[in-house]
Amino acid sequence: MVQFNAFLRKEGVEAFRTGKLLIVTLIAIIFGIMNPLITMLTPQLMKLVSDDFDNMGVTLSDIKIDALMSWAQFFKNAPMLILVFVIIFSGILTQELQKGSLLIILTKGLKRRKVILAKFSILSIIWTIVYWLCFAITYLYNAYYWDNSIVHNLMFSVFLVYMFGLWIISLIILTSVLTSSNYGSLMLIFIIFVASYLLGMISKLKIYVPTYLLSASELIKTNSGTSDYKNSLWIIGVLLIFNIVISILAFDKKRI
């Protein structure tokens, strides 16, 4: 545990010193503010374009803004936050593999599995901080301007997207081990995401693919429909563990 904790601290310090932690935190704050802000600005934006629609014979009805609309915006922006996170931290393992700096650490006795677990742990910690910070900002603004109690299954829906982010982090680790290339890692993650999305278009399979969790915004409109997502939650948990186990096994056999 001493080696693991020391390596984990090293990863945290590196994320701070390189500015990656600051960047992703600022983006999370911006998204957290944007969710209610866009909702509040929507009526004004609709008024700006209403004349153009009137000329086309289309009448726009008044839009009621509330916490439900703001949370819908949160779920629209969440995938963007995940994408930014992937781009910023996709090189967390591949850069050290390419530079050969990991070899020095490993020759000093650090077990390879601890490298994988530490990398996954620090990314999970950072993701937890930035995601729930974004959530907290949106929640507080919504509570101030509107009423969060009208939103159904809020915490469960938000947790589903959080778990999707953890699964993506496990893919960062796995693809980094398999490709040893930042570009290769990004490409593999993109391919897996697209494959999951396409499988989700098949009605009988959609509730079993990871990308189904990104549709969790549907749950905030009703009290029903959580059972399918619970199944998906179990599946993505199994896939997450599978990715980390395969990463450890592959990294143990990898030449560095």
TrEMBL record:
It comes from the Bacteria. Keywords: Membrane, Transmembrane, Transmembrane helix. One of its GO terms (molecular function) is ABC-type transporter activity. GO terms for cellular component: plasma membrane. The chain crosses the membrane at residues 21-41, 78-95, 116-141, 153-174, 186-209, 233-251. Pfam families: ABC2_membrane_2. This is ABC transporter permease. It comes from Floricoccus penangensis.
